[in-house]
Amino acid sequence: MIQKNKNQVNHFIIQIIVQTMIKNYLKIAWRNLFRNKGFSITNILGLTIGITCTILIFLWVRDERTYDKFQKNYDNIYQLMANRDFKNNIMTDPNMVLPLASTLEKTYPQIKNAVVTTQDEWDVFSYQDKKIKKTGLTVGGNFFDVFSWKFIKGNAATALSDPFSVVLTESSAKAFFGDDDPINKVLKMNNTTSMKVTSVVADPPGNSSIQFEFIKPFNYSDPTVKNDMNEWLNSSWRVYLQVAPGTNMAELDKNITALKIQRSPDDKISTYFSFPMSRWRLYSDFKDGKNTGGMIEYVRLFTIIAIIILLIACVNFMNLSTARSEKRAKEVGVRKTLGSDKKQLTLQFFFESMMIAFIAFIFSVGIVFLLLPAFNSLVDKHLFLDIAQPYVWIGGLVIILFTGVVAGSYPALYLSSFNPIKVLKGTFLAGKQAVLPRRILVVAQFVISILLISATIIVYQQIQHVKKRDMGYNADNLIMLDSSPDIQKNYTAIKDELQKTGMVNSVVRTFSPITDIWWKSPAPHWDGEPADAKIIVTGFATDGDFTKTLGIKMLQGKDFSAMPSDSSAMMLNKAAVEVMGLKTPIGMQMRYGPKTYTVTGVTDNVVMESPFKPVQPMIIFYDPNNTNMVCLRLNNTAPLQKALKSIEAVFKTYNPSIPFEYKFADKEFEKKFITEELISKLTNIFAGLAIFICCIGLAGLASFTIEKRIREIGIRKVLGSSVQQILLLISTEFLKLVFIAFVIAMPLAWWAMNNWLEKYEYRIHISVWLFALVGFLVLLLTLVVVSLNTLRAATANPVKSLRTE
Amino acid sequence: MIKITELEKVYRTEEVETIALNKLTMEVKDGEFVAVMGPSGCGKSTLLNILGLLDDPDNGSFMFNNIEVAHFNERKRADLRKHNIGFVFQSFNLIDELTVFENVELPLIYTGVKAAERKKRVEEVLDKVQIMHRRNHYPQQLSGGQQQRVAVARAVVNHPKLILADEPTGNLDSHNGNEVMELLTELNEQGTTIVMVTHSEHDARYSHRIIRMLDGQTVTENVLV
To answer: Looking at the predicted structure, is the pLDDT value of residue B105 above 50?
Structure first.
């Protein structure tokens, strides 16, 4: 009993001691924070910037990594993909035949659901006086069993039961009906079909791979759909599988391929495989039939950058803490003689770094809230800091602990190891032993900064290089719009009217937009074709005024003359002539499908797909009926708004059922750089911030160096040194470090960026001048930062610094 | 060499105004060895700083070699200083990171003397103060007396016309102190003008003339020679 009480008392005493100690630590930490305002502000500023960057990057990374995770069947959803083996060139695509899904579902019990959808399609819906073009999907009836969308009105079970029903997203419903209840309202689709709204679902979240504004079911009684349900070769649909957990996917893939061959024996080149939902977003690249990665590379890259930026900020803290350790040495000495042991001192210094990390974190969260709208528009996302989510708190705690521990580790261990006798006697030159580690840390900081700056410039140069590439056509004042049955029917009249407005120089119909390729196939056959020619070509159909409207150069022969005889003519692009090895292409016979064509012209290469890649060989047909787009070359002297108004009037007359919507070719071309531009912008910002944090650290370190060398500066001035000589003296110390960093960073940057550029076939080569420039810039920056801090000491009257002796 | 007339210097802080020099008038002739004495706070150091062109007076005239320098700007003062004046401090003020040789070499670097010439002159002067054998040592490795000899060597390496010494023996024992005083006397005999601030009557006796100061003014002058 007594023993127990004694234990309790002991326990109580220990508790009090610990509480007092913590209170004491906090008090000292808090006071130190205020006493050394310069030091605290420098550290908090650096850490705040570092943590802000980290939070923003992590929000972005989290968004990328959580793509599609809201789907309830996330782990069991696969998209069916096919590898098409064109001998030594395997291409991967998601195009499937329409009947495949239902057949698979019936054949294999491990497939719980197989759903077929169209590719993104657009339809024009009208309600009262509203007529709006919406993009959506036509889907199999089990679409809502496979994918989980949030139903706001109606339910999944009955949403698609009628072939003339449509499910709208919340914003689509609002666009048509405002605040009225949309259920059972009827929309007119493409001016012909009446569709009843059965449900409203929430807009698909930003991090959903599948996006739509409406969903409608296949109408299996429609003759076209009926026909397609028996078509086992023509493939343009998407198929998604929901399998039973634990399904052997390799085996299933084999079975699917076998089934497909059995149904369409003519297709000997396709191998099917299931592509798991978890890889859709981040691993979307395929090369030679293999999944080679994709966005994941950037997600990893930016995760590393986030950590590095935080580390740079932590390094500042370490450097400044050890640099001013002279001031703390006495405190350590006194505490040690009063009985504090090393562990307690270490703990105390950790307390201080944690406190600074915590304050910086609070500031960061505030700044993140302020910056998020701008950051969102930069990365084109809807990121937000949802403080109701536990991950935000856990993430915050991790960042504070990480920052506090990393930043505090070295100073805490270093400071607490001081020998009290030496310190108190004054024979201890604190801060001196820490010079080498500090220099190493500064060099490391600058290595990273130089790497980031080089990367920024190289990414920028690569984008500019590609943008300046000769695209083979003129994208200025070129607009493109979707064709329609009405446009096809009235094309002659439309063309006539457009030219009469005086706003349009010429018009042409094309198979695809000039900024995209929709048609790939094996090359046609010709006499003298090598036996092993395995060439894939892209296809294009057009009508008269093709090269004139698009501004494409003819290299040989003539453009189509818009005569009926053109239907057996074919043009090749320069790449096709080169790849096929044709010496005199004009007049050659090309067998393609059931028909034979005569080559009548050779065009220059036109960059339609990725501007980072070489132009692929292309065959061009005169086939006005097989076109989907209308391209208009505007008169560049006409005011744009006026031109568009007159063009709209023409299309309104001849194509009244569809809203007048157009795209500028140059704007569409810009979209090919979305990823690269994003990377460029992000590296820009983060490189800028990294170098800024470095400079804060440098400034801090410079002022400590000066404080330590103030007497030396005084002596030198008395002996006749000029202000410039003093500035140079102090700067040299730092310039040396930056130079070492430069020597280390240069090969690293070259290697890393060369690696990045390898992805691009059309690319720049890194020039030595770039590094010279970066080196010069960083040296200049160092000189400026250090000089600004040194200037006061250098111009001060030396008498003052010598008198304090 | 030095002619000061009605020199004034006032230090102001937020609370107090201290008159350091109060219409001080004095003269030092070429080749003289003058000791300045007086209690703490009498303005000795201020006077020395102004004589050393480290500080500028608020009022009055300061003729250095018949040139009015009282209103020189910092650059002009620095230029005049590095060619004409050498300093010896109580606390030596050697740079710890530089060797003996490098410390002494410093003034020559700042006056733009070429390397070969520098080497010759530094060795010459180190020889003179008998510290040549320690030329590659760092200041902390030397005794106080040795350090002050290095400081004296540094002060004279540029062949200044004037040496200003601020309690040069203040941190030294009597033996080392006497050595330094003899060194200064020797330099003076070779023609260098010396103005020395000191608390020590013993040291003051090495000089030709003692100026006693109180409250920023000279009170008496004793001619010893």
So the answer is: yes
